[in-house]
Amino acid sequence: MKIACFHLMPYRDLEPDFEKKYKSSWFTLPFDAVADRHKVAQYYNWTLDELEFAAKSGFDGVCTNEHHQNAYGFMVNPNMMGAVLARATRGTKTAIIQMGETAVFLNPPIRVAEEYAMLDSIAEGRLVAGFPVGLGGDFAYSYGMAPIEQRARYTEAHDLIKRAWTETEQFAFNGKFYQLPMVNIWPKPAQRPHPPIWVPGNASPSTWDFVVKNDYSYCYLTYFGAKGAEHMVNGYWEKVEQAGRDRNPYRMGFLIPVGVSDTDEKAAQEYGPAAEYFYHKGLHLPEQLLLPPGHMTHASLTHLLTKRPFPPYDELKKMKYSTFNDRDFVVCGSAKTVTERLINIVKTLRVGHLMILPQFGSLSHQKTMENIERISKSVLPHLRPIWENEGWEDHWWPEASKVEKRAAA
Amino acid sequence: MKNPRKKVVPVLGGKLEMTVNIAGQGKPVLYLHSAGGYYWDDFLDTLSDHYEVYVPHFPGTAPGRPNDIDKVDNLWDAVIAYEDLLDGLGLQTFRLIGHSFGGLLAAELAAQRPKAVENLVLMSPLGLWREDAPYTCADWCALGAAELQDVLFYDSNHPRVVRRMTPPSGKDAEALWTVDFIWTLGCTGKVIWPIPDKGLRKRIHRITAPTLVVWGENDRLIPPVYAEEFRRSIANAEVLMLPQCGHEPPLEQCETLLSRVRKFFDA
Questions:
Q1: Dihedral pair phi/psi, residue B52, rounded to 5°
Q2: Res. A219: pLDDT tops 70
Q3: Which residues of chain B have a CB within 8 Å of the CB of A147?
Q4: What is the largest CA-CA distance in chain A?
Q5: Domain B5-266: which topology?
Q6: What predicted TM-score, i.e. pTM, was given to this entire model?
Q7: Each residue of B155-212: pLDDT tens digit?
Q8: Interface test with B, best of A178, A298, A304, A314 (most B CBs within 10 A)
Q9: Where in the sequence is the domain holding A98, given as residue range(s)?
Q10: Which chain B positions have a beta carbon within 8 Å of A144's beta carbon?
Q11: What is the mean pLDDT of residues A125-134?
């Protein structure tokens, strides 16, 4: 299987009583009151150092993502980060996984087709093109578009980008949201016809339909634990089978925070505060900010409020590290414990692309580097062969990255 | 309380059907609801003792028809749909009341069909913008239920407010009530996001109907300074400023409002 290193680029030094003083760590949080600009500069560079180190240490890919106006993770332009990483890993097989530049945040979204093509060129064909629908609050509050339009804009932006990559002649695009008289992008991506497409999502059935129909790879981004994910993920696999597609595990990605220490007890000391910081402060996000009215269809909203497949984020504040770790919200412990638990998760959910979050919450640069090293040395070698005996090919991995990679000895 | 009858009217060349609640007899009054959605309250009920009251659901907010909103892409589509609705209902001249989001629609409709509107009542309408009194859709969409209640009302314990804001009992019933409330904010938000300043200022001069601008003195959602802004912008307008009243005059000052509106309509 493939294992990538994911990073959110959070603010790591929020005050202990931060969540009591501020309504949210998203959208409404005043930068100048909370943030130290020197620290922010340091975080961006640490983030790049950490991802670069992960690539050198044996991770198969590095993942960046996009969010706005928050302390949870403020990589506002993942392609800037991706460009640095593509250059820093030149000559290696490391996949540059953009999870990703969010087309509906840009107007015209053709910009994503151009930037991904440019990035794939710099990376010499190692790009994975993530197509996130985008967070509702980012779309509506940070970028000022009517929440009810997000999914239709997403589909239209996707169609425009795909055509821009694949058509050989200039064309006019007359969409409902985007109208362009001359679509004729320079450059085209290094990979033909285009880089592999991964779609991150939060278990929305309409996203599954989109992924399955287009034969993309799905990445389940949940922070509510692998134990609760099985039921959700089964829903995805059912759609895959209904569509007559194979059960190739590389159709499925999963993101999880991971912390490795010498023993389980030491892991609790090393990662407990960071995990609690992540859930209590980073996800200090009232539901109406996360899900502006209209973002979810009437049917999806009815499902959410009557079935409650995941709790409101405020419920997380009542939980401690032990709960997060027991329920596989995070996987922390000795290398042996972490390896066993990850193997179980990967097999249960049928995950081909595992995305590990080695930095979460307040975890320091030094601890993160140590964590990356331990994961690379003691965990990755045991995970990599998981699907080997089933003989699946990863159709969603960049051609130029397709050589087995061994963790640093 | 009356039980208004429902009438379904095709608009936009048959591409959309609008659902209208109708009660009472007399001269017609068209009432356009707020972003909170249709709610038959004491104000409408008493009004329908004297007039024939028409209350359309904004597209997407009628029960069981959430996807109707797909037929309306912007404010212009909405205004055209309401114009078609007037024709479908056979309303050649009528009195028009709009509340908040419905106030913006009412002002647009009165600017679009000035001769059809005999009297216009705008209750805490959206639609204009002042740099010194900013407001955005986030002011009612980014709030939790308790915060919204604080912003909307002068007195959250007013019996009419309590009745309006109490969901039906039962786990699913309450959840479905909340779904419809959120969905209504989503549908109405579609045509005014992110700031309901969509060019009314360029059209408002066309309103010729005598206009009563109603505002709650304690409106914490849309600042009462806009009452004067609307009065100044409309040729023949007066202001009714209601004390002890937030953003929902029909709930918090029902009697005073009714008596003034009836006088205004019958003058």
A1: -90, 115
A2: yes
A3: 141, 186, 189, 193
A4: 62
A5: Rossmann fold (3.40.50)
A6: 0.95
A7: 999 999 999 999 999 989 999 999 999 999 999 999 999 999 999 999 999 999 999 9
A8: A298
A9: 2-401
A10: 193-194
A11: 97
